[in-house]
Amino acid sequence: MTSKLTQLWATKTPDDEWWSSFITSPLAIVSNYGAVEISWITPNRITAASFVVAIVAAIGIIVGGTGWFIAAAILIHVSHILDCMDGQMARYRRVSSPVGSYYDRLTDQVQVSLWFGAAGYAAYVQTGNATPIFLAMIGIAFYGLRGYAKYISLEIETARDPEYPAKMARLKRAETTAGVAFGLRANLKWFMKEQRKVLAFDEGVFIFMLSAALIFDQLIPMLWVFAASQLFWGISKSWLRGQNIGKNRKTFLQK
Questions:
Q1: How far apart are CA 167 and CA 11, in angstroms?
Q2: CA distances, 54 to each of 138, 198, 239 (Å)
Q3: Taking Cα atoms as reference points, which of 174, 175, 161 lies closest to residue 250?
Q4: What is the pLDDT of residues 58-113, one digit of tens each?
Q5: Domain map (residue ranges) of the chain
Q6: pLDDT at 135 over 90
Q7: Cβ atoms within 10 A of the Cβ of 168, count?
Q8: What gap in Å lies between CA 22 and CA 189, rounded to an integer?
């Protein structure tokens, strides 16, 4: 059992985002313990299931009401656990594919837009004020800008240096410093270091932030945080990528 868990933990992305790093990704490892032995469960099917659950969660937010909000919060976590499972399973079985990675990332981007668009609408229905919709639009737009700026910079740098993606992959590589093969002290040290990732306000933070707002019915404060954080990171990361291109520096930046 320990040997299999160790192998599964090795499939976990070392630089996982906050919340997914120490909550949804470990839960995905536990879920994969049995799932990896079932042949008809494939990474691509898990990706599809994750996206379907994400859509149902968005519908629940739009329908509204305490019961639907709580159900949507749970489904958001289920979707993200599945989202972690597909890559882990592919690496465990050694069947990773560029196509699977493409659709995994594509659905990640779409579901964030669905969730926060739905949250903006639900808050509008509650208040009769269009501000939450505007906040959701700002957050979604500048979150998308983070990914678009990354794509543009990658395209420009690769045209200048075909080895650029490989160089960035080496910079991105991180060592595993926690898990079932490590002691309590190492895991606690890793857990504390992971907490600073909350300031990145990426998808891992959204999972926690949105689900908490749904459970406690605090959509408007959450949307203000979402819009402000994405406005800041969208502009700052886009500017930094432009600076890197101008100076031809090889600095790895997260989305």
A1: 22
A2: 21, 22, 32
A3: 161
A4: 999 999 999 999 999 999 999 999 999 999 999 999 998 888 889 999 999 999 99
A5: 2-247
A6: yes
A7: 18
A8: 12
176 has pLDDT over 90: no
Q: What percentage of residues in the chain have a pLDDT greater than 70? A: 96
Measured distance CA(194)–CA(185) in Å, rounded: 14
pLDDT of residue 166: 80
CATH superfamily for 2-247 is CDP-alcohol phosphotransferase transmembrane (TM) domain (1.20.120.1760)
For residues 230 and 252, what is the distance between their CA atoms, to the nearest angstrom? 19
Q: Is 43 within 8 Å of 100 (Cβ atoms)?
A: yes
Q: In terms of C-beta distances under 8 Å and separation of at least 24 residues, what long-range contacts does 88-92 make, across chains too?
A: 88/8, 88/11, 88/12, 88/25, 88/28, 88/29, 88/32, 89/11, 89/32, 89/35, 89/36, 89/41, 89/42, 89/43, 89/46, 90/43, 91/10, 91/11, 92/7, 92/8, 92/11, 92/32, 92/36
The DSSP code for 183 is: -
